[in-house]
């Protein structure tokens, strides 16, 4: 059985603005954000530097969960969905094969709604991150997590945020779907959000869960 704890929203108005803002502000985002916008690796935000591979590589194991705070225009919105731990805005699953380290994650772009679940290099995943946390599942073997996660590569981003439909996957849904098959004893809590009328998975359902060990945290 896959245990899910439902938490009613305690800050209804705030979350309404957060989730609704993802769509309401789309027109503004489209006007200011394109795929060609420069992203210097050494200066993501003023006074902040990108986290580099050498900062994290020695800590990683296959199947680790890597949370990050990035520099995208929607990153603060996704971060603030979490009610307690607001360090992160995105999630990826580490995969290590033959000393090659990649990260499986689902990315959505408002401008063209393309991308989705993809496997990228560790460097690629980190180059927009100025804050990261590495978490390790307690009740599952790492390779089984990454082997299941890789099966979702190529599926589009789930703009409907529907946990009952695995034909499309959003970022935290990737871990939810993976653990449902390989480690159903893991607790990944959901939160009902009136603004979208669905259960969603905030990032602090991983970072605050006793089922995951926090291995590393870096903030630049």
Question: What report would you give on this structure?
Answer:
Helix 1 (12-24) packs antiparallel against helix 4. The N and C termini lie far apart (40 Å). This protein has a single domain, classed as endopeptidase domain like (from Nostoc punctiforme) (endopeptidase fold (from Nostoc punctiforme), Alpha-Beta Complex), CATH 3.90.1720. It has helices spanning 12-24, 26-32, 53-56, 75-81, 122-126, 142-149, 171-182, 204-207; strands at 6-8, 65-70, 90-97, 100-108, 115-121, 129-137, 190-193, 198-200, 212-219. Strands 5-4-3-2-6-9 form a six-stranded antiparallel sheet. A hairpin with a 4-residue loop joins strand 7 (190-193) and strand 8 (198-200). The chain is built from eight helices and nine strands.
Give the overall shape: globular
- Read across the widest sheet, the strand sequence of neighbours is 5-4-3-2-6-9
As a whole number of angstroms, the C-alpha radius of gyration is 16 Å
Q: Which residues form runs of ≥5 with pLDDT under 50? A: 1-18, 22-45
Overall pLDDT confidence:
80
Describe what is shown at a glance.
With 220 residues, the chain is an alpha+beta fold. The chain contains eight helices and nine strands.
Q: Which descriptors apply to this entry?
A:
about 220 residues, alpha+beta, endopeptidase fold (from Nostoc punctiforme), 6-stranded antiparallel beta sheet, 3-stranded mixed beta sheet, 9 strands, disordered N terminus
